[in-house]
Amino acid sequence: MDVFEYETVVTYLKSRHILKEYKKAKGYITEGHYQQVQLKKRYPYSSGIWYFRITRKYRDYAKKEQNRLVVFEISDHQ
């Protein structure tokens, strides 16, 4: 599964110095190792929003379109 992100997401990652961790998580998803980043569907399930772990503190929120994830937000999980 491919992962794409909005430009605002990249700016947020750079400002928080977590771009390296994001790329690592993105690589796991691309290779199909979903358990490594805890890729899950967010409740309510009908919303179609997925999330995965970047670090213990940060999570990505994405929409699934065809066979790819489009990341639209990074959240401070704390």
Give the secondary structure arrangement, pairings included.
Elements (H helix, E strand, L loop, with lengths): L1 E4 L1 H10 L2 H13 L2 H4 L2 E2 L7 E5 L4 E8 L2 E9 L2
Parallel strand pairs: 1-5
Antiparallel strand pairs: 2-3, 3-4, 4-5
- CATH architecture assignment name: 2-Layer Sandwich
Query: Any idea of the CATH topology?
Result: YaeB-like fold
Radius of gyration: 11 Å
**How large is the share of residues in beta strands?**
35-45%
Going by helix content, strand content and strand pairing, the class is alpha+beta
Question: Helical stretch count?
Answer: 3
User: Could you list the spans in which at least 5 consecutive residues all have pLDDT below 50?
Assistant: none
| Gross geometry | globular
Outline the biggest β-sheet.
5 strands, mixed
Describe the overall structure.
With 78 residues, this protein is an alpha+beta fold. It has a single domain, classed as 2-Layer Sandwich (YaeB-like fold), CATH 3.30.2310. It contains three helices and five strands; from the N terminus they run βαααββββ. The chain has helices spanning 7-16, 19-31, 34-37, and strands at 2-5, 40-41, 49-53, 58-65, 68-76. The longest helix is centred in the N-terminal third of the chain and has 13 residues, at 19-31. The chain is globular. The mean pLDDT is 94.
